[in-house]
Amino acid sequence: MPKFICISLVRHGEADRNVAQNGKFIDEDPDPLTWSGRRQVKNLGISWAQSDTPIDILYSSPLERAVDTAKAIAAEHKDHPEIIVKAELVERKFGTYLRRLDRDSNAFYAEINGPHVGRIFGGEKPDRSHRPRDGGESLEDVANRAETFFREYIAKHAITIDEKPDLQAIRYTDKVPVGIPHIVVVSHNVFLTELYEVLTQWNSKRHIWTDFHLRNAQCRRFLVSIEDAEDGNFPARVHEVGKLDVQVLG
């Protein structure tokens, strides 16, 4: 019998690096929210409070811009949920070598996307196995982090319910389905994209590129059904709740 969990994927508000003319890939260096970013996340928290959105668990990346976004959501919520910080939720690490390169150079893009890819043109895609030098992660590394996080921290909260959710009905509402735990994950665009693709491609033998992308302070909410298998593994089916876009600009 399937178990269900509702997940909201939230990207942090606008941060300094998002608007910098020549923003560096700085991994875990300070990158605070801008004034507009703080307005965004406060308004996001208010919108959730006004719609009486329940939050059972609130996870956040440890990076400043994500923690401050989570704090804004929690501050407006009637229950002021505890923020649980998890290292697994950090953005893709690009390593320190990129600091030496001009952001507009071919070498810079080759360091991110792979030496045989460089700048992305047309339908070309990055090399998912390529790791930038000096501590960088590949996209496959991030996907593995995302899958581990889902298995260890989200899947265990899924529950069985007496009546299967009306999947047709939930597409026309942005409400959390009644009686199903709601997990909020505040993180970064690359990580959240990989988490989304892990869930939607759980049983796929190869990676399929999607157009999943979150703007700053944007959220997308999903209902996930999980079925246990005899080998201890499980498939996951993902159903988006409505056409949710709760990005609120300052």
Automatic annotation (TrEMBL):
Binding annotation for substrate: R11, H12, G13, E14, A15, D16, R17, N18, R65
Any one GO biological process: regulation of pentose-phosphate shunt
Classification via SMART domains: PGAM
Coiled-coil regions, chain positions: none
Pfam families: His_Phos_1
Highest taxon in the source lineage: Eukaryota
GO terms assigned for molecular function: fructose-2,6-bisphosphate 2-phosphatase activity
Keyword Chaperone: no
Record keywords: Hydrolase
Residues annotated as signal peptide: none
Record-linked Gene3D superfamilies: Phosphoglycerate mutase-like (3.40.50.1240)
Residues annotated as the enzyme's active site: H12 (tele-phosphohistidine intermediate), E91 (proton donor/acceptor)
CDD domains (alphabetical): HP_PGM_like
GO cellular component terms attached to this protein's record: cytosol
PANTHER family listed in its UniProt record: FRUCTOSE-2,6-BISPHOSPHATASE TIGAR
Protein name in UniProt: Phosphoglycerate mutase-like protein
